[in-house]
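Example record for the data management plan.
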Amino acid sequence: MSCFAYMLVQVILALSIPLEPAWCDTNPPVVVGDITPAGKKPGIETIFAGVVRGLVVQKVAEAGRTGILHRGIVIQNPVQISDGDPRTSDGLYVSLEGKEDIRSRNGTHAPQIGDDLIIRGELGAFRGRPALRQPELVQIVRSGVDINFEIPAFEVRPPDDAKDANRYWEERHAMRCIVPSQSLVVGSRYTNYPYLMSAITVIRPDHPLVLRARLAARRPFRDVHPLDDDPAVFDNGNGYRILLGDMVIKQLRADAAARLPYVRTFDRLSGPVTGIVLKTDDRYMVHVEGTIEFDRGSMPPADTMQPNVTTGHGRLSVATYNVENLYDAVDDPFDDRDFYDRGPDPLNTNSIGRLHNYVPESAVAYRSRLGGLARQIIEDLGSPHLFMIQEAEDQDITGPKIAVPSDEPVNNKDGQIDSLQSLADLIKARGGAEYRVAVDRAGADRRGVICAYMYRTDALALVKPRGQHGAFKGIPGITYDGEPLLPGEALTNPRAVNARHATVGKVFSRAAQVACFESVADNVLGLPAELRLYAINCHFKSRPDGFVAKRIEQTRLVSSLAKAILEHDAGAFLIVGGDLNTFPRPDEPIPSEPADQLGALYEAELKNLNDVLIKNEPSMAYSYIYRGQAQTLDHLFVSTALSDRLQRVAAIHINSDYPPDPEVPHRHVSDHDPIVAIFDVTRN
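Corresponding structural encoding:
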């Protein structure tokens, strides 16, 4: 545009004279990805900087951190005047903030689908997406336009490689699309913190992965896996996944809590759905329009069986289970970080005043969740003898109870943290085994979650620690080049162990816990009298593709604990487990930067039981689903003495493939699936 033309447009705008409604494009092509989102120009028709024209193709809304709706509209160019550059999108998100209308010189205008508008504002970004902010209406060129005729939706077909898929979505950002009927569900997520949102991940029905004969094999994996779409490739990122979102549904219902329907893995879309492509933070989603329905699939798949993990006579059963922020509903007066203040939160989103705690909505909701966990432990897990648990709240202010306090709070009441003590009481009340809780509360992180143990009192008891067990002295008793962060004198069982390292600082935010158990005398379960079991319970730093150096040091510290035990007793029954937040060998989350994050555990001559699971039951080898990608984050490593006695290892899929549907109360009570191993400890 010439300088004269630019000045003419400015004068026209100032005088509020309607612009000629012809489309014009003075925006030079911009290669997608060449500049940051905040500086990226949209491919939509630009009259001059900050002034755009487009058809309103959808109205959207999303929940903010306080549960308030943040509204916006999506405008797009008709196909006949597209700039023709496949590297630029023909759509743009316009942020209305909390409003439903756009200000203009004559007041305001409530935009409607089919409006042909000229809008000016500030080109920038909102939640990672290119956006026009602080919009002002310049002119309504047309109204009631048939967008299906002028802007037909494209059919979604993302490429397999994640980098190619990211470019694919970027080139189509803020544009209308269609997801085909019978697309297969491979994951779902329903969250209320920090934002209320839901997402369902699907794959096109004609993708080769979906066309496999076995239903259980129609699943993408994030780690190296023989059933991934291309096991010969280290990791293509599974770019063919399509994430469905709820921003149109929230707008239509004017409700921040409105979500997509509950689905399970292997459900299918009943019909095609139209939607809008929008980026939120680091992911592209298709926000579906109108009613969305699914045909019920089979979960678990008909060609697999839920593993039978019932413990037989003389068999020792050990499980690891991340119970996903198991906080109780009672404020701990001895912890100024443990509180819950709803504040001005009429939508009850639990998003205000929590200091990163995940307090349940009510005592009733807490008890319901405990009931689901108790039922899982009794019915699905076969009441293992020992649980290594992660993400339980460390609060200990009351004695035995079921879900509610039974007496006045006393700090460090009885050494059994309240959340797990309530769970143990409920298991017993429902006819299950009697469990006791063991934990060193010094291992809690700043938000009050901790690694802990639950063990059956008819099978195991804690061993009284003695000075010759170096692992129970903490850092002074093992070989590790770090400064102790917990006292090294007193011997406790369990014992939290942590250090500060010169490279990564504090090694654990929630310390690893080492414990030693022995069989109860004259137990009726057939466990030998001389049985002694060491366990190291871990919760490593999250995000497999981040904090790699931190996890390497966490592994080295835990490996040092394991070596100290095995040096004291070469034939020891030792199990190291927990949520290690990265994948087993040979996988690395960043292929270009191989780090062998768990290498120190393998080098300590411990066997990862996931290797056995992959060999025997590959379709069951996962413990967590991230945006539709199955992956193994939860591990059990064992010493040679235990490995030689392994009878069965199983991942029990009772959570990750299910939504938090109240109609199925004992499913999805956590976002992780537990791993159970059974050993024949009567063998010599």
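Summary line stored alongside the record: The radius of gyration is 28 Å.
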